[in-house]
Amino acid sequence: MSVLVTGSVAIDHIMVFEDRFKNHILPDKVHMLNVAFSVPSLKKQWGGTGANIAYNLCVLGEDPVLLAAVGSDLGPYAQWMDRHGLRRDWLLELEDSFTAQCFITTDLDNNQITSFHPGAMDRAHEARIEDVGQDIAVGIVAPNGKEAMVTYAQTLKQKGIPCVVDPGQGLPMFEGQELIELIEGASVFVVNDYEWSLTRQKTGLGEDELAERVGALIVTRGAEGSVIRRGGLEAGVEIESDQSDVPAVKAEEVVDPTGCGDAYRSGILYAIANELPLETGAKLGSLMGSLKVAHAGPQSIEQELPEIRDRFEREFGHSF
Questions:
Q1: Region 2-18+38-316: CATH code
Q2: Residue 277's pLDDT band (boundaries 50, 70, 90)?
Q3: Residue 41 has what pLDDT?
Q4: Integer Cα distance of 253 and 275 in angstroms
Q5: Share of the chain above pLDDT 70, in %
Q6: CB atoms < 10 A from the CB of 129, how many?
Q7: Average of pLDDT values for 292-298?
């Protein structure tokens, strides 16, 4: 059975402005802003939450189903996917759209100006779970077009397939009641600590009330690790205790945090697909995040599965 990954496929354009924005933006003229920044440094990275998660699952030896919408410009990204074993069988290619793209300019003070073009992502709901011709062990609803996220969550729950809901940077799109409906009945609801606070603010519900609506709640806290709390539903996931604190794995080097959360989620999905406790998945996710942060780019882990297994055993004293 396969892991279904729904989420964005995106191309990131990373630019560095070798000066400071504040030297070129006049505060008393922001109402008529017209500036241009010369950016001699430009990098193009392959990203998107769905593709990042799928990439890391391939590193772990899985063969995920990536369900997403892309544009006619996928070209070089498609070649990257083929080289790294990411199947494109269920990518919906829209000839009249661009693949989702992010343009990020960073200055010498690490201030950023970001523009995001959703492109094909806004029509991701046209790629249907019902059309996937494989048995699915678990599916994740990662940041994507809003209609796609709602539809995918409903479909997975209706089919009785373990459903991991990960709203991530898509969370601001949802009003309180919409967010409750997205969360309700999920096998796992996973967010970082900021998103967890935003979830409670938007829904008006407390921690206990939200936990009762899911099988398990996972809150990641960066270098402080993650917390797993058993929810109120029996939702096809194995949890060892009512609450578990999982430590972070210290990275050998901190190069680029982009995509660490996606790497973490690959560990959670691996555990559910292989009928392992969520605690094991969180430990594996912590390791994957630490391996990712040591490399530039969201799809950059170079270690092979035997090496990852050895490192996991050294860190946690047991295998997965």
A1: 3.40.1190.20
A2: very high
A3: 87
A4: 32
A5: 100
A6: 20
A7: 92
Residue 72 CA: distances (Å) to CA of 76, 78, 123, 287: 11, 11, 14, 35
The domain ranges of the chain are 2-18+38-316
End-to-end CA distance of the chain: 18
Summarised one tens digit per residue, pLDDT across range 111-137 is: 889 899 999 999 999 999 999 989 999
DSSP of the chain: -EEEEES--EEEEEEE-SS-GGGT--GGGGGG--------EEEEEEE-HHHHHHHHHHHTT---EEEEEEETT-HHHHHHHHHTT---TTEEEETTSPPEEEEEEE-TT--EEEEEE-GGGGGGGGS-GGG--S-EEEEEE-S--HHHHHHHHHHHHHTT--EEE--GGGGGGS-HHHHHHHHTT-SEEEEEHHHHHHHHHHH---HHHHHTTSSEEEEE-GGG-EEEEE-SS--S---SSSEEEEPPPPPS--S--TTHHHHHHHHHHHHHHTT--HHHHHHHHHHHHHHHHTSSSSS-----HHHHHHHHHHHHSS--
Q: Looking at the DSSP assignment, which residues form a beta bridge with residue 220? A: 192, 226
Question: For residue 99, which of 7, 9, 6 has the smallest C-alpha distance?
Answer: 9
How far is it, in rounded angstroms, from Cα 144 to Cα 125?
9
